[in-house]
Amino acid sequence: MDRPLVTSWGRALLGLGTLGLALAAGIDATASRWRAIDPDRALRVRPGDAVALTLHQDQHQAEGEMTPARAAAVAVVARRALRSEPLTAAALRQIAVAEGAAGRHGAADRLVQLSYRLTRRELGTSWLLIEGALDRGDAAAVARHFDEALTATPLAGEVMYPALSAALFDPGMQAALAPYVRQSRPWIPYLMRYALGEGDAGEHVGSLVVAAGGLPRSPIYDDLDRRILNGVAAKGEFDVARAYLRTIHAAGLATDPRFSAATTDMRFGPFAWSLADRQTVTGRRDDTGRLQVRVSTARPETVAARTLVLPAGRYRFSQKVEAPDEDVVAAAKWEMRCLPGDRRAWSLELPVRRTSSHYAGQLDIPADCKGQQLALIVAGRGDQEDAEIIVDSLELSRQ
């Protein structure tokens, strides 16, 4: 298994563990809420309260670098907490940090393990265990400790989703997290939504889902295929997009230009047709797979667009076009642009006639055109009534 790239994400994030993890660290789910929420007030009432003492130290040490001297000072208070409640996991973790800062790593490890055996709900201990797993290059242990923390402690997501989202770029972490996707762990969809939004890591979420063999079929994953494919396309990761579509049994979608139930299913995000529905132009797929277009403006407007993932090469593109009303003149054209970069690669004019007409053209996809946006652009003529256009029998074949 690949070693996670500790220097690029682990140290920056897990430094929070030695800073105290602010409000989250040390909160035991069985502790009284008033001790956790307002430890200063709790200490005025009960000066020796162990939970309040340890949380107070976490809060007050969170803003500065945890030097050996500061760690030793925190440990003094932690030992005081242990005299009040000998099995206080947060206090054991604070002393472990001081022992580690003083170079007594064996003692630090034993204290961390004791804290861990007492409870899985102490987030500061979870961070130290994750840090240790990172040092060993043990991605499976990193993922396991994230899973334990996110499962056991409701507050864990606030501090752990940013860290885990930042780690998704690493193939070793993707492989370690894939079993949790397959098991449909409750926190997985929340992590993915965070990574797609705040984390802006759509392409890495896509790679994780590919590694897992697809998303579980469950309502809690609703809309994630679309959001992931949107994120993958936005980053120009079309190799990931192709693999993702294969994983969800939609490989043919990436090269199929037709207006079918599959190619108009919004589950597939930008890889499905987006049809206009505006006052000036609308597009609708009928029951026979034809695209029916209405346009009431002379200004060219896009009525249908989608992203394809065509391999490099030469292609033949053909279709039938007609206008049901012979008295209303309209025009249409296809345009293809290369992604990423948005440079024009090909276009085909379609003069619209009353009778059904067949149009075909050849196009070349260069090797550096990994993804393609195909768009149908239409226009009416002047102040005439709405023009109607029917597009049918699209075919795209490699030469």
If you had to describe this structure to a student in words, what would you say it looks like?
The protein is an alpha+beta fold. The chain contains 15 helices and 10 strands. It has helices spanning 6-19, 33-37, 39-45, 50-61, 68-84, 89-101, 105-118, 123-136, 139-152, 156-167, 171-182, 188-196, 202-212, 224-234, 238-247; strands at 274-275, 281-285, 291-295, 301-308, 313-322, 331-339, 343-351, 357-365, 371-379, 387-398. The strands form 2 sheets. The chain has a 5-stranded antiparallel β-sheet with strand order 1-4-9-6-7, with no helix packed on it. It has a 5-stranded antiparallel β-sheet with strand order 2-3-10-5-8, with no helix packed on it. A hairpin with a 5-residue loop joins strand 2 and strand 3. Helix 3 packs antiparallel against helix 4 (50-61), helix 9 runs antiparallel to helix 10 and helix 12 packs parallel to helix 14. The longest helix is centred in the first third of the chain and has 17 residues, at 68-84. The radius of gyration is 29 Å and the shape is elongated. Mean pLDDT is 82; it is low at 1-39 and 41-46.
